[in-house]
TrEMBL record, chain A:
The keyword 4Fe-4S applies. Pfam families: Fer4_11, Fer4_2. PANTHER family: PROTEIN NRFC, PROTEIN NRFC HOMOLOG. It comes from the Bacteria. The keyword RNA-binding does not apply. Residues 12-31, 71-103, 105-134 form the 4Fe-4S ferredoxin-type domain. One of its GO terms (molecular function) is oxidoreductase activity. This is Anaerobic dimethyl sulfoxide reductase chain B. Its EC number is 1.8.99.-. It comes from Mesorhizobium escarrei. Keywords: 4Fe-4S, Iron, Iron-sulfur, Metal-binding, Oxidoreductase.
From TrEMBL, chain B:
Its EC number is 1.8.99.-. The chain crosses the membrane at residues 7-32, 38-63, 84-104, 110-136, 148-171, 177-194, 251-270, 276-297. This is Anaerobic dimethyl sulfoxide reductase chain C. The keyword 4Fe-4S does not apply. PANTHER family: ANAEROBIC DIMETHYL SULFOXIDE REDUCTASE CHAIN YNFH. The keyword Transmembrane helix applies. InterPro entries: DmsC. GO terms for molecular function: oxidoreductase activity. Keywords: Membrane, Oxidoreductase, Transmembrane, Transmembrane helix. It holds the Pfam family DmsC.
């Protein structure tokens, strides 16, 4: 059913720290590598080595310049499904292929029911869903359902591939429905925010804004290079000859 | 939004077809149109033909058309599913009405009831189509109070202009019918102008700051995550130059509204054979104009995902 569950037991999701993300794209490739063989496989690439490369990715990292009165800075911004509490992508689905799980709140697509009408991708304000033109169905982030409950993996590896890959620990995974969980504490401590809260989708994933500029940062520039002094002797002669 | 021809044609054709079906169901069922065999065959054939061609065109837009039957299941939550259910359900009274009119030569009794039910079904189906677009929050130009009435008005307008041409073609037209289609065309013109005016003055609260959660100042896209256009940009990042848009708006106004208005005024003033030719020309011009209008409806719609790409 594409009607939303009234209540989900857990609200599993990600918290992304925009302060520490360095834009290395490791989460992007780890996601692609895991999921092209996982639940939503394949993540088709079209013309991957040609001039018109295209393909399905669940996670994309943008770079922005954020200018404020405090100055400018580069912010790397990973964008993926936010597993919203009121996801319109699910309710618009005419076939029941899209659904939100009552157990953990993960939004998934049943690829065997999807007719590829693309309406869910229109209904998502965040661009989380990407159409696989080769298979003819819609694909999206699964929060790595095939990792987080996978008994064949060591317990510490039971996190989404993007979280496991992040070298700066900018990505955190956990239950955002439990105020006592480490991830909820982190959001509270760092004043995590929703993306496009005005649209009312109530995203589960939260973003931690970059920390304020600090006065401890180096503010004195390196000394300027001085102009070359005219020299006498042999080197002065070479300089004069070469300057002609 | 990318204006896929299959969807542009689908909404234009079914809009006109359901408008024509609703008017036929009400007017013929209530005895305003004679139960003539050829008139019934051609007009109901055209109405159901436009609807069927549009629905088939929309199925062509699907990635997996062989699974289209699944789209009838989620009518509790999905306007697209409701559209599927309503469109198929409407074929039942519409088919009975067509059979009664064409094969039994009557438009009274149970045939009239079938006609009224077909009209109700047609209006309901057009409402569901309008709501598919009106319910999409990420597209401010569609998520407005102008969208649903727009679909209903344009459906009635194009249906009435076609019906007038059919009646004129069979030499059973009337000044009232010409005036009715003229009035609806004027109404449609006014509604489209009001819609454009509304869209041009939209103040959208969503911007690059709220999209990224970076409060204050300006947020400028430095680098995309990919070098070539991806699905999101192809489907939702469709851009149209401002001057191009102004030109297309003028083409829409001329073809869909101004030209049909002039032709219908002339048809109102002139006697039969001329009035019939002018009415037919008005229909052709308006259908072409409505295709441009629907193309613009998509091309001018801006999806919030474009904010992530600095577009």
């Amino acid at each position: 059913m594409t009607c939303l569950p009234a209540h989900t037991d857990k609200k599993l999701g990600l918290v992304i720290d925009l302060d520490t993300c360095v834009g290395c794209q490791a989460c992007v490739t780890a996601c692609k590598e895991w999921n092209t063989g996982g639940y939503m496989a394949p993540l088709t690439d079209i013309d991957p080595y040609g001039g018109d490369a295209d393909g399905v990715w669940f996670n994309r990292v943008h770079s922005y310049e954020h200018m404020t009165e405090m100055g400018g800075r580069t912010v790397n911004f990973p964008r993926s499904c936010l597993h919203c509490e009121t996801p319109a992508c699910v309710t618009v689905c005419p076939t029941g292929a899209s659904y939100k799980r009552a157990s953990d709140g993960i939004v998934l697509v049943d690829e065997d029911k999807c007719i590829g009408c693309k309406l869910c991708s229109w209904a998502c304000p965040y661009g989380a869903r990407e159409f696989d033109t080769d298979v003819g169905v819609m694909k999206k982030c699964t929060l790595c359902v095939d990792r987080i409950y996978n008994d064949n993996l060591a317990e510490e590896d039971r996190v989404p591939a993007c979280v496991a890959a992040c070298p700066t620990s900018a990505r955190h995974f956990g239950d955002l429905g439990d105020p006592a969980s480490a991830i909820s504490q982190l959001v509270a401590e760092r004043s995590g925010v929703d993306l496009m809260p005005e649209l009312g989708y109530h995203p589960t994933n939260k973003y931690l804004p970059p920390r304020a500029h600090t006065p401890r940062a180096a503010s004195v520039p390196a000394p300027r290079l001085e102009p070359v002094q005219a020299e006498g002797g042999f080197l002065g002669w070479v300089d004069r000859m070469l300057s002609h | 939004m990318h204006p896929a021809f299959s969807v542009v044609f689908f909404t234009t054709a079914t809009g006109a077809g359901y408008g024509l079906l609703a008017l036929l169901g009400v007017l013929a069922g209530q005895g305003f149109v004679s139960p003539d065999f050829w008139l019934g065959l051609v007009s109901m054939g055209l109405a159901l033909g436009l609807i069927s061609a549009g629905l088939l065109s929309s199925a062509g837009h699907l990635g997996r058309p062989e699974r289209a039957w699944r789209a009838f299941s989620q009518w509790r939550s999905s306007w697209l599913s409701r559209e599927g259910v309503a469109s198929v359900a409407t074929f039942v009274p519409a088919g009975l009405f067509a059979v009664g009119w064409v094969f039994f030569g009557r438009t009274t009794g149970w045939v009239a009831v079938a006609g009224l039910l077909a009209a109700v079904g047609a209006v309901a189906t057009v409402c569901t189509t309008g709501m598919i677009y009106a319910s999409l929050k990420p597209i401010a130009q569609w998520h407005s109070r102008f969208t649903l009435p727009g679909y209903l008005i344009f459906s009635a307008m194009s249906g009435s202009v076609i019906l007038n041409a059919l009646l004129q073609g069979f030499a059973v037209g009337s000044k009232t019918m010409v005036a009715f289609s003229l009035l609806l065309t004027f109404f449609g013109w006014g509604w489209k102008l009001a819609t454009w005016r509304h869209n041009d003055r939209l103040e959208i609260p969503t911007n690059a700051n709220t999209a990224t959660g970076l409060a204050g100042g300006t947020v400028r896209s430095l680098e995309w995550p990919h070098t070539e256009e991806n699905y999101l940009l192809k489907e939702m990042g469709f851009r149209i130059a401002r001057k191009h848009s102004a030109k297309l708006r003028r083409i829409t106004q001329v073809l869909a509204f101004a030209l049909p208005v002039l032709l219908l005024i002339a048809a109102f003033a002139l006697p039969w054979p001329y009035a019939a030719v002018l009415s037919a020309l008005a229909t052709i011009a308006q259908f072409a104009g409505m295709l441009v209008e629907r193309w613009l409806f998509f091309a001018e719609a801006k999806h919030t995902v474009t904010l992530y790409y600095g577009r």
